[in-house]
């Protein structure tokens, strides 16, 4: 079993790509070319390791789980806002577009919070070029049809976290909401909380889909060190979010958010 797992890990992407790059290293002539090959091999191998991906994620997942002793649900919260992620296009079993796994897990956790708190739900997410229905409409449909929960507000024009905040803030102001529970993946929330708070809202993070957890290091096995696509995806998301936070800081200096009254 161990040998099978090792062979499979090396023959499946990205393992096979790393092996091909190592083979190419011996075919490349010249110091500069070989230095470049070593750099590519090192970066791809490192980013494809789960411990590295989790280490990159850990500083982003700073908010504890809501409803725990470390973060009790505040009694002053007035609404729950669920941020969209992506969609599955043209799902034949659903007769068209539906929620992707990331958006669905956020909706599921938002529904759990709504049932336990009785707070109204708001969803936010627009559509990209070529897409038909705004993703927030799909979220509202799932909450109604699959969870039996009504949605108090649907923001349908945003395409980024920045626009999620600016678009949803007007809906919340209309309904007199100033304190929200903000639902998203744990690694995405630091940036999202900053932007929503910049709109003058009191924001309590409601994280889901944690990548890291206390004591994760002790649960590692040798398989976790093998290159894998899921580990590479974790590293990709972490790097993407670190860059996103940096960009939003710069954008905040250039284009301050219009705080709502």
Automatic annotation (TrEMBL):
CDD domains: YdcF-like
Coiled-coil residue windows: none
Single GO BP term: Gram-negative-bacterium-type cell wall biogenesis
PANTHER family in UniProt: ENVELOPE BIOGENESIS FACTOR ELYC, INNER MEMBRANE PROTEIN, PROBABLE PERMEASE
Alphabetical UniProt keywords: Membrane, Transmembrane, Transmembrane helix
InterPro entries documented for this protein: Cell_Envelope_Assoc, DUF218, Rossmann-like_a/b/a_fold
Gene3D superfamilies named among the record's database cross-references: HUPs
Pfam (any one): DUF218
Protein name: Uncharacterized SAM-binding protein YcdF (DUF218 family)
Domain DUF218: 78-244
GO cellular component: plasma membrane
Record bears the keyword Metal-binding: no
Transmembrane regions listed in the UniProt entry: 6-28, 35-57
Originating organism: Thiobaca trueperi
Domain of life where this protein originates: Bacteria
């Amino acid at each position: 079993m161990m040998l099978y797992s090792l062979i499979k890990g090396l023959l499946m992407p990205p393992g096979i790509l790393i092996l091909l790059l190592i083979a190419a290293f011996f075919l490349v002539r010249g110091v500069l070319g070989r230095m470049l090959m070593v750099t590519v091999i090192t970066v791809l191998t490192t980013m494809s390791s789960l411990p590295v991906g989790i280490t990159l994620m850990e500083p982003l997942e700073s908010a504890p789980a809501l409803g725990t002793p470390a973060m009790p649900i505040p009694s002053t919260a007035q609404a729950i806002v669920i941020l969209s992620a992506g969609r599955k296009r043209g799902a034949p079993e659903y007769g068209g577009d539906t929620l992707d796994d990331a958006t669905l897990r956020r909706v599921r956790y938002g529904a759990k919070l709504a049932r336990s708190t009785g707070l109204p739900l708001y969803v936010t997410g627009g559509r990209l070029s070529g897409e038909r229905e705004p993703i927030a409409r799909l979220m509202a449909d799932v909450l109604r049809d699959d969870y039996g929960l009504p949605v108090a507000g649907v923001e349908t024009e945003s395409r980024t976290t920045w626009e999620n905040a600016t678009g949803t803030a007007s809906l919340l102001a209309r309904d007199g909401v100033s304190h929200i529970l903000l639902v998203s993946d744990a690694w995405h929330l630091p940036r999202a909380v900053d932007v929503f708070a910049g709109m003058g809202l009191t924001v309590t993070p409601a994280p889901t889909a944690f990548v890291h957890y206390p004591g994760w290091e002790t649960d590692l096995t040798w398989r976790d060190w093998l290159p894998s696509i899921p580990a590479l995806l974790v590293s990709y998301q972490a790097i993407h979010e670190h860059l996103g936070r940096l960009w939003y800081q710069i954008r905040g200096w250039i284009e301050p958010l219009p705080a709502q009254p």
